[in-house]
Design goal:
This protein has 383 residues and is of the alpha/beta class. The chain has 14 helices and 10 strands. A 6-stranded mixed β-sheet has the order 6-7-5-8-9-10, with helices on both faces.
Length: 383
């Protein structure tokens, strides 16, 4: 099956955050589309005081988008903001192609990446809650436009379902997820008795969190140069230089404009962060938006009431900042880059997860922070 041909659309408004330009935002949308399996064949941006309530775009830009259909032959239009049900229906009537927004695109990627029973339940709940306010007129156009990006999961199998049945499904899913949540609580209680501290790995999507976990624990977690390559949480035991044992937990990556339904549905998974002794924030140092990505992560952590949780920052991918014409050793590279990257805090460490650079120091810092923030006596005799 050939990939869907996508055109990407973004609007810069007066309320658009100054941290991200519309070009940077649509570049990230292109990464999401690629991760979902689409082929991006065009982009369209517009600056407006506020998006049109009926068609998102202004009249002239909408006509331009319609004209591009003849020259590019796109069959899906992906918008960088969440569309209202009215906007989506109107756009599909004009364009005669499938129209989805950023939220639906992220949900589609999550549906691909969920492999555990818990993960699948949470994604299905998020998709159902997203679709519920869009039921009027949705089933007929989904059936007409066929499958593919934005229509996987409940949207594809529930075309004849009315609001009452979808609400019943949401209620049932919430009940099953609550059962998972209670099971997790019991597991956490048992884990607390073991007195083994937890280090939760957080960060923007695609910053190298899974690569770091693999390098430290040889866990063989899926690693791809795609957004949300890891969805299901993975936890591994690792030994620190002081011989103590910690649990290192990899979590789903954060991203700007994360759909509220995702945050709500993944409550059971997100609660794991609250149980962590320390948060290890992995930053992609070579990203042009590294500072902005860090700010997004901090905002999400604050929303989750985790702002005051002890923090360690790992500035990853430092090897990509070096001159490839020269052969670098770990110590030489770290010493060269430290003054340039602002590694001033004792809880900030330069690393390369792929090369293994800086990881001994990172583990030492984890041990130091845990010693400062917990009264736990680590069990150090078990591997």
């Amino acid at each position: 099956m050939s990939p869907e041909r996508a055109i990407l659309i973004a609007v810069a408004t007066n309320k658009t955050s100054g941290r991200w330009s519309v070009e940077e935002s649509i570049n990230e949308l292109a990464q999401l589309a690629k991760t979902a399996g689409a082929k991006v064949i065009g982009r369209l941006t517009q600056r407006l005081p506020v998006p049109s309530k009926t068609h998102y775009l202004g009249k002239g830009k909408l006509e331009e988008l319609l004209e591009l259909k003849d020259s590019t032959n796109y069959n899906i239009a992906i918008f960088d903001d969440e569309l209202s049900p009215l906007q989506q229906r109107n756009l599909e009537e004009v364009l005669k192609v499938k129209v989805i927004d950023r939220a639906a695109l992220i949900l589609d990627i999550f549906s691909r990446r969920a492999h555990t029973h818990e993960g699948k339940l949470q994604v299905e709940l998020a998709q159902s809650e997203y679709l519920l306010p869009r039921l009027a007129g949705q089933w007929s156009h989904l059936e007409r436009l066929g499958g593919g990006i934005g229509t996987r999961g409940p949207g594809e199998s529930q075309l004849e379902t009315d609001r009452r049945l979808v609400r019943q499904k949401i209620h049932a899913l919430k009940g099953r997820i609550e059962g998972v949540r209670k099971h997790r609580m019991l597991y956490r209680q048992k884990r607390k008795k073991s007195a083994i501290p937890i280090v939760a790995v957080v960060g923007y999507t695609n910053t190298g969190k899974s690569t770091l976990l693999n390098t430290l624990s040889r866990a063989d977690v899926l690693v791809e140069d795609k957004l949300f390559a890891t969805l299901d949480p993975t936890t591994r035991r690792i030994r620190l230089p002081n011989k103590s044992i910690v649990l290192l937990s990899d979590t789903v990556g954060f991203i700007r404009k994360l759909p509220p339904t995702i945050v709500s549905a993944f409550r059971a998974t997100i609660e794991e962060l609250g149980e962590a002794s320390v948060l290890l924030h992995v930053v992609d140092l070579v990203s042009h938006n590294a500072a902005e990505q860090c700010q997004i992560v901090e905002e999400i952590l604050e929303d989750l009431n985790l702002k005051d949780k002890p923090r360690i920052t790992a500035l990853n991918k430092v090897d990509l900042l070096l001159d490839n014409a020269k052969t670098w050793g770990e110590e030489e590279a770290i010493n060269y880059l430290s003054p340039q990257t602002g590694e001033t805090s004792q809880n900030t460490v330069l690393i390369s997860a792929t090369k293994g650079w800086g990881l001994v120091k990172l583990l030492e810092v984890i041990g130091q922070v845990l010693a400062e923030t917990t009264q736990t006596v680590f069990p150090g005799k078990r591997a």
